[in-house]
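Hi R.,

Here are the chain sequences for the assembly we discussed:
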Amino acid sequence: MENKRRKIHEELEVVKEGFANGVAPGFPLEQSEKDKMIDEAEVAYGQFLDALKCDWRNDPNSMETPRRVAKAYVNDLWAGRYTAMSPITSFPSDGYDGIIIERNIPLTSMCSHHHQTISGVVHIGYIAGEEGQVVGLSKLNRIVELFGRRGAIQEQLTSAIHNAVHQITEGNRGVIVTIVAGHNCVSCRGVKHQGAGMVTTKASGVFRQNTNLARKEFFDSIKINNGNHPV
Ligand SMILES: [Zn+2]
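And here is the predicted structure of the full complex:
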């Protein structure tokens, strides 16, 4: 099982190991390694709060905060750097040659630059090849979790999800991924603008041509400009 996971991981990872949007060295980590990481990060975050002149040791609301923050990073916010996704099962497409779209996949991520949350949705479309394979729908959600739960740059995150879907649906005729997301680093700091959404799209195969009907079908389906979009 571990060897298979390692193989999937090597095909899908394009960012340098150790970078915030890459996996941690030694990925996937054992539970004991994660526990040690939480202990070390807890101490370091306490020092971070000391530097900010926060008397967290005596504040009932803050005394557990260094551990809470360390656990949130390892178990949730950056889980994709430490924990592998379960193996992906694919199935024969059985002659289905239409577009397959999963839209509104929830995205919770974190900006690598400011460590503020990114939240939005991911839309994924693909067309299986002649002898093609389709994947269980929830696997697309798992791919989003694997790459989203890291420090991220939305442009690179779009490419990483696209590359993963492309690899897993071997022989596909095209893959398209659109992310629509709000960045807390824009709304809460710096320019402090609420409600601005960032839209990124990565397309390959038949979806690359602006005039292609499958591409039009994808964008009609996700209806980015109808005013009802969540971001
Ligand atoms: Zn940012």
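Residues 111, 113-114, 116, 183, 185 surround zinc ion (CB under 6 Å). The chain has eight helices and seven strands.

Let me know if anything looks off.

Best,
T.
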